[in-house]
Amino acid sequence: MTQIDLPAFEREWLRFASWLCSNSPADHAMLRRPAERERLIELESRLGFDLHPELKALLQQHDGAAEPVAAPGSRRRLPAGAFLPLGHRLSSVDDIVMMYDVLVDVGKDNIDADLW
């Protein structure tokens, strides 16, 4: 794993969030409240490994972004909340759990263990 500088990460995230608030308040408004500590512990337990420290720090800032919604008559190319490259949004703890369950379920029936 590469060297982790959590203070630098948090500083840069706050800088980005400030930019987002000034330049795209609709996107900034879609950021959710911090994930609760207990939810992060449950997530790590379910996954069976610790979250990357920067992902954990990000979830402690915002539990993802709300589901994007396009405002009627909006000229925006992407709905609010889809501000990451290619229109992606930040995943919440619930999103991570859902995708983990999907991938595990697909992997059980469709992936040859020898390939892994």
Explained architecture:
This protein has 116 residues and is mainly alpha-helical. It contains five helices and no strands. It has one domain (6-66, 80-115). 53% of the residues lie in helices and 0% in strands. α1 (6-23) runs parallel beside α4 (53-61) and α3 (37-47) packs parallel to α5. The mean pLDDT is 86.
Structural class designation: mainly alpha
Low-confidence stretches: none
| Terminal Cα span | 21 Å
Name the shape in a single word: globular
Helix content: 40-55%
Mean pLDDT: 86
Give the C-alpha Rg: 17 Å
Tell me the fraction of residues in β-strands, as a range: under 5%
Q: Domains counted in the coordinates: how many?
A: 1
Largest sheet: none
Tally of strands: 0
Order of SSEs: HHHHH
**Tally of contiguous helical segments:** 5
InterPro entries: Knr4/Smi1-like_sf (IPR037883)
Task: List the topology elements.
Elements: H1 6-23, H2 25-29, H3 37-47, H4 53-61, H5 93-110
Helix pairs in contact: 1-4, 3-5
InterPro entries: Knr4/Smi1-like_sf (IPR037883)
Précis, in short:
It is built from 5 helices and no strands. It has 116 residues and is mainly alpha-helical. The radius of gyration is 17 Å and the shape is globular.
